[in-house]
Design a protein that fits this description.
Elements lengths: L1 H41 L9
Length: about 50
């Protein structure tokens, strides 16, 4: 029974660490996207119709 609880605790801790890493990645990605969008909206763009 002790081995089972030890293993379960290990998996729960790993899952918690992975969840924190994933949350940090999502927050960082959102911050980078908002920063890029803010820069793009503040720049003056002139559309000539050609690419």
């Amino acid at each position: 029974m002790g081995a089972f609880l030890g293993s379960l605790l290990e998996y729960v801790l790993k899952a918690a660490v992975y969840a924190v890493i994933a949350l940090a990645g999502v927050k960082a990605g959102k911050a980078l996207r908002e920063n890029k969008d803010a820069k793009a909206s503040s720049a003056v763009r002139i559309h000539t119709g050609k690419r």
